[in-house]
Q: What sequence folds into this?
């Protein structure tokens, strides 16, 4: 039997996600939906994703692609699996990245896949900020 397609009830982009040992509660620190950078390519040192699912049952291979609005893929996060025994359970997971390269300003997306099938994309806006020059420069 094929697993049920999960419903994504939360998808957060943050500086950091932490799962507390003992309670297994998640914390998302520094939630955002846009990045401002003075120059490009920009390397984001630490970016994390928090995902919570509902109405899922079965085994899932999870992949997230980071791409631009032309579907050019810049990073792939894969190798994660979930085994969900009951549709009444709302599993969640955190994905941590390091040194994510963002080549230029624009619209980017985190595209979420379950067992190779596209589920949903989540937008991240990237803007260039003007550099401020101090007197004498």
A:
């Amino acid at each position: 039997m094929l697993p049920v397609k999960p419903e994504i009830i939360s998808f957060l982009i943050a500086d950091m996600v932490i799962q507390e040992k003992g309670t297994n509660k998640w914390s998302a620190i520094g939630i955002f939906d846009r990045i401002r950078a003075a120059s490009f390519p920009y390397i984001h040192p630490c970016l994390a994703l928090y995902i919570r699912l509902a109405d899922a049952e079965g085994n899932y291979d999870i992949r997230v692609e980071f791409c631009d609005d032309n579907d050019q893929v810049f990073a792939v996060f894969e190798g994660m699996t979930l085994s969900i025994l009951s549709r009444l359970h709302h599993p969640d997971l955190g994905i941590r990245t390091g040194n994510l390269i963002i080549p230029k300003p624009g619209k980017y997306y985190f595209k979420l896949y379950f067992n190779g099938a596209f589920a949903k994309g989540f937008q991240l806006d990237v803007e260039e900020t003007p550099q401020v020059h101090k007197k004498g420069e």
